[in-house]
Amino acid sequence: MVPSAWKSETINKTEKGTQGVDCKFTNPKVKGMKAFVIALGRAGEDAKAFKITDVEGTFASFAGADYDIQDALTTADEVTTKTRDGENGDVFFEYDIDSPINHYQASISTKRGKIFALFIKTPGAAYNANKELTNTMLKSFTTL
Fold first, then answer.
1. What Gene3D superfamilies does the annotation carry (predicted)?
2. Whole-angstrom distance, CA of residue 101 vs CA of residue 2
3. Are 113 and 11 in contact (CB under 8 A)?
4. Phi and psi of 11, rounded to 5°?
5. Domain with 73 in it: what CATH number?
């Protein structure tokens, strides 16, 4: 679920090919607030098990799509994780990175050897005013 007032951004070849960005939306009312979906076809690549519960390792895989992710992790006051059961029996790992600079929320799942993730980035100062919206967006994320 993305609010109708949000603007869809065109994904370029680099974002799609090397960063795995599938779609991206920005909130025109809050500078720097965006949501993007990443699809990576490498769960278990190179005989290395992908551990979705490993926060550092998981986010290192996605840092190329948004370089501020690593900064948020290093400046975070708190990082919380929980799981959510999806409609089709999929399990979604949800992360909340509470950084004063940029607050990130993510919902990540694996399916058929691929990793699917929704990231919502909100400037730290705007997070509390948008928390209900971002929580609704996060819970709406599912795989087909």
1. Mog1/PsbP, alpha/beta/alpha sandwich
2. 23
3. no
4. -90, 125
5. 3.40.1000.10
- pTM of the predicted model as reported, rounded to 2 decimal places: 0.86
Residue 25 falls inside a structural domain: yes
User: Does 122 fall in a domain?
Assistant: yes
φ, ψ (nearest 5 deg) of residue 61: -65, -30
Range of the domain at 111: 17-140
Is 132 inside a domain boundary?
yes
The arrangement of strands across the sheet holding 91-98 comes to: 7-9, 21-26, 34-40, 114-123, 102-111, 91-98, 78-85
Rounded to whole angstroms, the Cα distance separating 130 from 128 reads 5
